């Protein structure tokens, strides 16, 4: 799970919190906390709302009333309306940033795959013998850039019509013996 502080950027969070403080009025505090952070005990009344990403609570939004207590009357702030709205806005920011990060990770994986194919092509152009081609591909798959857990290179014999494995590699924890 990505920490909340990495998903909520200050440049997008600060204007939103500033507007919410304006709606709530003077004396109100707004705190966004990670799920494992503990806030200091405060005698002030307030509201605590969960912040969710993909249905998982990753933080909380705290609306802390002024020390004199929340004001009442027709022009009084309405934290029961501002709080859920602000929490919804923050959850949308979280979802957008998580989607952006996901796309960046996918682009990085595609770049690594293309780089692997480029390096493999350079190795493949060196020889047209099937065994050398297979060994070149397996060597590229074992490199650190995009390591594979398991790989094998079958080779076929046209005279005996049998297929054998010319080279196999595996990480010991990935292979299990079937009985």
Question: Can you walk through the features of this model?
Answer:
The chain has two domains: 4-103, no CATH class; 130-179, no CATH class. It has four helices and five strands, in the order ααβββααββ. It has helices at residues 4-7, 10-24, 79-124, 130-141, and strands at 29-34, 46-53, 56-64, 150-157, 162-170. The protein has a three-stranded antiparallel β-sheet with strand order 1-3-2, covered by helices on one side. Strands 4-5 form a two-stranded antiparallel sheet. Helix 2 runs antiparallel to helix 3 and helix 3 (79-124) packs antiparallel against helix 4 (130-141). A hairpin with a 2-residue loop joins strand 2 (46-53) and strand 3. The protein is an alpha+beta fold and 179 residues long.
Give a nutshell description of this structure.
By secondary structure, this protein is α+β, with helices and mostly antiparallel strands. It contains four helices and five strands, in the order ααβββααββ.
Task: Give the secondary structure arrangement, pairings included.
Elements: H1 4-7, H2 10-24, E1 29-34, E2 46-53, E3 56-64, H3 79-124, H4 130-141, E4 150-157, E5 162-170
Antiparallel strand pairs: 1-3, 2-3, 4-5
Helix pairs in contact: 2-3, 3-4
């Amino acid at each position: 799970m990505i920490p909340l502080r990495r998903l909520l950027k200050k440049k997008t969070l600060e204007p939103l919190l500033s507007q919410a403080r304006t709606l709530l009025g003077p004396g109100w505090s707004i705190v966004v906390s990670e799920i494992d952070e503990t806030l200091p005990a405060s005698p002030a009344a307030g509201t605590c709302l969960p912040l969710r990403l993909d249905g998982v609570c990753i933080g909380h939004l705290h609306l802390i009333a002024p020390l004199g207590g929340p004001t009442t009357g027709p022009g009084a702030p309405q934290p029961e309306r501002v709080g859920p709205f602000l929490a919804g806005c923050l959850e949308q920011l979280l979802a957008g940033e998580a989607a952006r990060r996901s796309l960046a990770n996918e682009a990085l994986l595609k770049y690594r795959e293309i780089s692997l194919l480029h390096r493999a092509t350079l190795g493949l152009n060196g020889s047209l013998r099937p065994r050398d081609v297979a060994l070149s591909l397996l060597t590229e798959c074992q490199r650190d850039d995009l390591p594979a857990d398991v790989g094998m290179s079958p080779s076929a014999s046209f005279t005996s019509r049998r297929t054998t494995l010319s080279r196999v590699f595996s990480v010991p924890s990935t292979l299990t013996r079937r009985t």
